[in-house]
Specification:
mainly beta; five-stranded antiparallel β-sheet; three-stranded antiparallel β-sheet; 36% strand
Length: 147
């Protein structure tokens, strides 16, 4: 087997079998792409939050597995320390910054959520990124001056 396989390269392969009577004819030629699922993306990061939404930044996978990444998915837990995750269906799959809100995504104001991303190409879906913990809450109001 050749060691000159390049990730993303397309290779033409054929084979044949041998038994006591000799060699068979060659199989039809197969075109095979040297690719796998993408590497998991880095963890998303916090950008901003209000009492009704949270905006996070997401990052592309550093390795596409040898095939073009088709889209990304944004996932969140159901709140608090829950280990149940749901796909954020409002996310468009390509933007690297996204606002998740109470009205469109079912978030609850005052709740902390865990967010993760995954990348998908024709060969599969990456492992989940590390989590980002962020709360849906605005910053407190500016206090009055001391008297």
């Amino acid at each position: 087997m050749s060691k000159n396989i390049t990730s993303g390269g397309i290779y033409r392969l054929t084979f044949r079998a041998k038994n006591i009577n000799g060699w068979s004819l060659f199989s039809p030629i197969s075109n095979i792409k040297a690719a796998t699922k993408p590497q998991r993306p880095p963890a998303p990061t916090f950008y901003s939050a209000t009492s009704t939404s949270v905006t996070i930044n997401m990052y592309r996978s550093s390795e596409d597995g040898g095939d073009l990444i088709l889209d990304y998915e944004l996932w969140r837990n159901t709140g608090g320390s829950s280990t149940t995750y749901v796909n954020v269906t409002s996310y468009d799959g390509v933007s690297m910054s996204w606002t998740v809100s109470v009205s469109s995504d079912g978030l609850v104001s005052g709740t902390i959520y865990k967010f993760m991303t995954v990348a998908t190409n024709a060969f599969g879906t990456s492992d989940f990124s590390d989590e980002l913990n962020v709360g849906v809450s605005s910053f407190p109001a500016k206090p009055s001056p001391l008297t």
